[in-house]
Specification:
The complex is a heterodimer of chains A (488) and B (248). With 488 residues, chain A is of the alpha/beta class. Chain A is 62% helix and 9% strand. The chains are: A alpha/beta (488), B alpha/beta (248).
């Protein structure tokens, strides 16, 4: 018995040692690139990796790290101190380390660059107004500003900044970070938030305003690693150490520009970073779409199947036991009120990231139309048919299977159709927790502000919605008995 | 065959039937007649065991109607409602076979009986492959009648079976029904508000008013010796059709 136990432990340990390093990233270019640098660095050292890139904002990657869903992801010292650890001021690495140690997390040595927040304006505007410093904005409240959702919300973000500088801007718009450059270019706004390593600053010839009252803390690039992963894969420490201090601001900006401006993939840009002579491999569009297509189909049909298997019996039970029914309808209705992204984030600590929590979330969303369809279908059956069933001697089960379900089929199928179309759309959101599919292309495209990549995800997703719509119209013929499809 | 002893029934405190006592003999056609809401449908539903009496005893073929399990109902009586109650997702044939199947009575014998019934109610057997929505109102009622007779029960309850039919179809269906009643010698309870229909079918007529029996007897007895003012009034309300001359 002891022997078996020891063997089991050894085997489990061996399996763990062999398991790939899970690398996460946030959903903007630089985070993808840094994660990819680590991934290729590890692969060059012969370590297997799983790329869980573009998972979402800081909250999501941080949760994923704490709950051991990923082993490592790129972060910034400022974000870590102020947002994730909730400190009042930016802490030094020496101060951060003991705080993280308690949580089993280790900070790598800084990578070399400092990607701070900054404000930028067009060169024209800067020249016209002589605008060079943030403090000058106090006298220019008419300038329209655009900031990312994250900057608007975080502790060291917008609110703290306007207080620090005493600004009273008249117009502030929230938008995705990748869109603020376009907004500035199209003259829809005047002041935007940038990262100091953004490749677009040089390309668009923007003027970065001086942080003359030193508001923005340092945002040094680092990796956060779970200490357990370091023990499991000693190569991980070696590779992380080899990356320390090697990426300057300028190099980071160049890497960002290669992806965002020159159109290289993350993989290609990083391959060139490691080796100037790396070949640019350009997989065909079909090949690029094959993986996401398979995954997206799985993300649509698996939840639909499960939701049907759960939803129809729930709907039937809801009619049989009215009190339980009210609870079920209320519960499935409440789920709909949770924003999809929030639900996905809630599920990370419970189920991790990737396929499983996505399927669970999609099943939960698809339940309401199916349960409600089944319920209303059964409730709307003319009571005379139930009476006829009684006098004809049908048992409860016969009545349900041969009479009630077929009579309710029109409503049930309508519920299924709603669920199907909803799921196709919702499945793209699953990309935010690393489930892949067309959403992954959309998320990447958004991060790069690359319309071509967004469309590579969005068009097939829309096409799939159309196909599913017609497929389910066709399904009417199988699910709704002929006698009910005849118009009277 | 059917008897009620001091039967009362009320819904939500409103009395629908009050102190009803009656006896219906076997093999006869008993028509229950009265205005809407007089309780005549409730009475038939009591016979069928679909509702329970608050007071009194309803017995059908020697059994307490309230205690006949659903499974035995189709063997005891056929039940036909206003629009037939055919299941729209089943063909006419599937509707007819449904009670036979639930009682495991499938086979050659049932098929032959079904064909015989088709003949009797004058339904073109080609209609059997169609769905109720493809049939006319009269055809639907004929299919429903076959369904209620497929297990050959001794009783037949008909709750305003012609309520929704136009006069021509109605008259043709009335002929079929009477032929069936006479041929099969069923004990029939027939609910209607139509006096000519009552006169056409009835061995006995029961005229009801506000949950009570006004008079029970043959149609002639009701005409010749009405027991109350209401009986006279009800019979007189049935106007003869206007003469053609009157239309000028």
């Amino acid at each position: 018995m002891k022997f078996v136990f020891v063997m089991a432990c050894l085997l489990a340990g061996l399996a763990a040692a062999q398991s790939p390093v899970q690398i996460g990233s946030k959903n903007f270019t630089e985070s993808y690139i840094l994660a990819e640098i680590l991934a290729q660095g590890l692969e060059r050292a012969g370590v297997k990796v799983d790329r869980r890139l573009g998972m979402g904002g800081s909250g999501i990657t941080w949760e994923a790290l704490l709950s051991s869903q990923i082993d490592v992801y790129p972060e910034y010292t400022g974000t870590l101190s102020l947002s994730l650890l909730g400190q009042k001021k930016n802490l030094s690495l020496a101060q951060l380390r003991p705080l993280l140690e308690k949580r089993g997390i280790v900070v790598s040595e800084p990578l070399g660059f400092n990607n701070s927040y900054a404000f930028a304006v067009t060169r024209d505007l800067s020249r016209k107004l002589g605008l060079k410093r943030i403090s000058q904005l106090k006298d220019l409240p008419q300038l329209r500003m655009a900031f990312s959702h994250e900057f608007m919300e975080r502790a060291d973000g917008y609110a703290a900044l306007v207080r620090h500088y005493g600004l009273k801007p008249e117009s502030v718009v929230r938008m995705d970070h990748s869109l603020v450059y376009s907004a500035l270019e199209e003259n829809k706004v005047d002041v935007i938030e940038v990262y100091t390593t953004d490749g677009k600053i040089e390309k668009n010839d923007l003027v970065v305003l001086e942080d003359d009252r030193s508001f923005f803390p340092a945002y040094e690039g680092i990796f956060l690693v779970r200490s357990e992963a370091l023990l499991r894969r000693p190569e991980l420490s070696a590779v992380l150490n080899s990356l320390a201090g090697t990426i300057s601001n300028q190099q980071m900006r160049k890497l960002n520009a290669q992806v965002e401006e020159a159109g290289l993939s993350f993989y290609e840009a990083v391959a060139i970073y490691f080796d100037e002579n790396a070949v640019r491999a350009a997989p065909s569009l079909w090949k690029k779409l094959l993986g996401p297509t398979k995954r997206h189909l799985l993300l649509v049909f698996l939840p639909l199947l499960l939701a049907t298997l759960i939803g129809i019996p729930l709907g039937v039970a809801a009619v049989r036991f009215p009190r339980f029914g009210q609870a079920v309808l209320l519960g499935s209705g409440l789920i709909q009120t949770i924003p999809a992204l929030a639900l996905l984030c809630f599920l990370i600590p419970l189920l991790g990231i990737g396929l499983i929590p996505s399927v669970v979330a999609l099943v939960l969303y698809a339940l309401l139309p199916i349960v409600r369809g089944t319920h209303s279908g059964l409730v709307s059956i003319d009571p005379k048919y139930r009476e006829v069933c009684r006098v004809l001697g049908l048992s409860g089960w016969q009545k349900l299977a041969h009479i009630e379900c077929p009579l309710a089929s029109v409503h049930i199928t309508a519920g299924l159709k709603t669920a199907a179309v909803m799921t196709v759309g919702m499945a793209t959101l699953a990309a935010f927790i690393g489930a892949g599919g067309y959403g992954a292309l959309i998320v990447t495209g958004l991060a790069l502000n690359n319309h071509a990549i967004i469309l590579q995800g969005a068009l097939p997703a829309a096409l799939l919605a159309v196909i599913i719509h017609y497929l389910f119209e066709l399904l009417d013929r199988f699910l709704i008995p002929k006698g009910l499809r005849i118009k009277q | 065959m059917i008897s009620c002893q001091k039967v009362s029934k009320s819904y939500h405190g409103v009395s629908v039937l009050a102190d009803i006592s009656l006896n219906f003999d076997a093999g006869k056609t008993h028509v229950i007649i009265g205005q809407s809401g007089c309780g005549k449908s409730t009475l038939v539903r009591l016979f069928a065991g679909l509702v329970q009496a608050d007071d009194g005893l309803v017995s059908v073929d020697g059994r307490n109607a309230a205690e006949v399990p659903d499974r035995d109902k189709a063997l005891l009586f056929g039940y036909m409602i206003q629009d037939g109650g055919l299941f729209p997702h089943l063909t006419a044939l599937q509707n007819i076979q449904l009670p036979a199947k639930t009682h495991s009575r499938v086979g050659e014998q049932i098929d032959r009986w079904a064909r015989e019934l088709c003949d009797m109610v004058e339904l073109d057997p080609a209609r059997l492959s169609q769905y109720p929505r493809q049939l006319s109102g009269g055809q639907r009622q004929r299919v429903a009648l076959i369904r209620s007779l497929i297990l050959n029960p001794p009783l037949l309850f008909l709750d305003e079976p012609m309520g929704a039919l136009d006069p021509l179809v109605r008259s043709s269906l009335q002929n079929s029904l009477r032929a069936v009643f006479q041929k099969l010698k069923k004990t029939v309870v027939f609910v209607t508000h139509d006096l000519t229909e009552a006169a056409y079918f009835a061995d006995t007529v029961t005229l009801m008013k506000e949950g009570k029996i006004e008079q029970h007897g043959t149609f002639e007895e009701l005409v010749n010796s009405p027991r109350t003012e209401f009986v006279t009034e009800y019979l007189a309300a049935q106007r003869p059709p206007p003469r053609l001359g009157g239309l000028k």
